[in-house]
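wait is this the right file?? whatever heres the structure
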């Protein structure tokens, strides 16, 4: 194999594929990217961790067709630093690949392309056009509540299901907080996902990366996979085989008490209060009295932080504590100038919604301090 590629295009592609590759696997080939070239002056790139698979292509000057696999991360790090706008990739004997640009030359060890797993992107699956902006919004607003690892109390993915005849809901929860975002069904064309599906955390992250620079995307579901395609890229994500908890039961249907807060002012106050928090002392206490919300945070080793915000509140005194990081991430997910904090009592979770952010809700469970 011998191909010439434009450096900028190659960098963009390697940024995509290195996120897919599995760096901890006992199979070294899974940390590699498969590079294939043909007579059509097109170079294809594939990567997989056996649960997520990505295929993309770019134009190039193919001097000798062929295929090989090489470390995605090391190739990216090398290409990023090369001095010239053109890069030559050439397969050498003894499982090596030469990378040339100007007077810079590198050699990387390779694994034969035949040893790379056979990928299936379910190209026969019916794909429908979806609203890329709506999909990106829903996944972005719920990602922060997806647990990093699955355990017996939570599912490390985003649950997508039909709420009614008019809307779908994206839901995530790590057991300490819950977020959901509703989108109209029309945003997903004729896609039928009434039974619901769970996209794993890494899959959500890769879909969002795919949507960063793409305005058109088609999507389909094939048994245990969700498949996305843009004009130049295929992505298949293996869905989680699990049952998402009955999350609706933990959201209080009636939340009789509430206050309205300026989002920027509230976020800034929380951020200042977090300066004195740490992994042990990570709470912020809300103290509500008539017309005032006081925020208390800190720890015995460093000191305390107090700040008061004026609010329209005439009810009884109320006190509750939350994980301050959870609140900051919740507020960052809101697209609204004002945030509404709703509650029942100090034992149920606090609900946060935006005055101009329809369809989004975040529940944060209280802390005992």
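ok assuming it is, sequence goes like this
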């Amino acid at each position: 194999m011998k191909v010439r590629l434009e450096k900028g295009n190659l960098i963009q592609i390697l940024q995509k594929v290195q996120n897919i590759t599995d760096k901890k696997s006992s199979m070294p080939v899974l940390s590699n990217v498969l590079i294939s070239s043909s007579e059509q002056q097109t170079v294809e790139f594939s990567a997989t961790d056996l649960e997520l698979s990505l295929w993309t292509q770019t134009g190039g000057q193919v001097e000798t067709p062929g295929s090989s696999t090489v470390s995605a991360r090391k190739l990216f790090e090398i290409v990023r630093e090369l001095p010239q706008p053109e890069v030559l990739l050439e397969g050498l004997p003894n499982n090596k690949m030469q990378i040339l640009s100007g007077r810079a030359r590198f050699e990387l060890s390779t694994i034969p392309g035949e040893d790379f797993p056979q990928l299936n992107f379910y190209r026969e699956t019916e794909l429908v056009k979806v609203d890329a902006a709506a999909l990106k919004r829903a996944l972005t607003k719920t990602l922060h509540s997806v647990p990093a690892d699955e355990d017996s109390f939570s599912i490390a993915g985003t649950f997508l299901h039909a709420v009614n005849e008019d809307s779908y809901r994206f839901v995530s929860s790590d057991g300490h907080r819950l977020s959901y975002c509703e989108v109209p069904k029309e945003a997903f064309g004729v896609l039928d996902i009434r039974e619901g599906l769970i996209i794993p955390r890494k899959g959500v992250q890769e879909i969002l990366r795919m949507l960063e620079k793409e305005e058109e995307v088609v999507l389909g579901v094939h048994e245990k996979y969700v498949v996305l395609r843009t004009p130049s890229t295929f992505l298949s994500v293996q869905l989680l085989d699990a049952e998402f908890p009955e999350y609706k039961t933990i959201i209080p249907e009636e939340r009789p008490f509430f206050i309205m807060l300026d989002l920027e002012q509230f976020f800034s106050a929380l951020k200042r209060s977090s300066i004195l928090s740490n992994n042990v002392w990570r709470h912020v206490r809300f103290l509500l009295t008539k017309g005032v919300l006081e925020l208390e945070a800190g720890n015995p080793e460093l000191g305390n932080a107090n700040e008061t915000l004026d609010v329209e509140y005439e009810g009884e005194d109320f006190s509750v504590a939350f994980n301050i990081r959870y609140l900051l991430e919740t507020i960052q997910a809101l697209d609204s100038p004002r945030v509404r904090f709703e509650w029942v009592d100090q034992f149920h979770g606090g609900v946060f919604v935006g005055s101009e952010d329809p369809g989004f809700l975040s529940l944060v469970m209280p802390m005992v301090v």
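The radius of gyration is 25 Å. so i think its the right one actually
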